[in-house]
Design a protein that fits this description.
This protein has helices at residues 15-24, 46-56, 64-71, 73-77, and strands at 5-8, 32-36, 59-61. By secondary structure, the chain is of the alpha/beta class. A three-stranded parallel beta sheet has the order 1-2-3, with no helix packed on it.
Length: 86
């Protein structure tokens, strides 16, 4: 019950910035972290951010950017631009 849980939101694919933030936590990567949406999009490291969250077993809540990706995943996988270009 004494473990701190760190809530991190709006990472938006900024992998290097996220790693720098995690390094500043008292237990570093071993800290309990819960992402509260928008891990992906905008930055160049969306894949790396998601991979880090999965590999470290961090909890995450889906944000609107993840939701939108899932809504248009078939178009993305076909290499098409989805109708919702946001």
């Amino acid at each position: 019950m004494n473990d701190q849980i760190y809530l991190i939101g709006d990472v938006h694919g900024c992998y290097k910035t996220l790693c720098a933030l995690i390094d500043r936590l008292p237990r570093g990567a071993d800290s309990k972290i819960c992402f509260v949406g928008d891990l992906i999009d905008r930055g160049e490291g969306s894949f790396e951010v998601v991979q880090l969250a999965i590999q470290r077993g961090y909890a995450a809540v889906m944000g609107n950017h993840e939701y939108r990706l899932l809504q248009h995943k078939d178009a993305f996988l076909r290499g098409e631009t989805p109708s919702d270009t946001r």
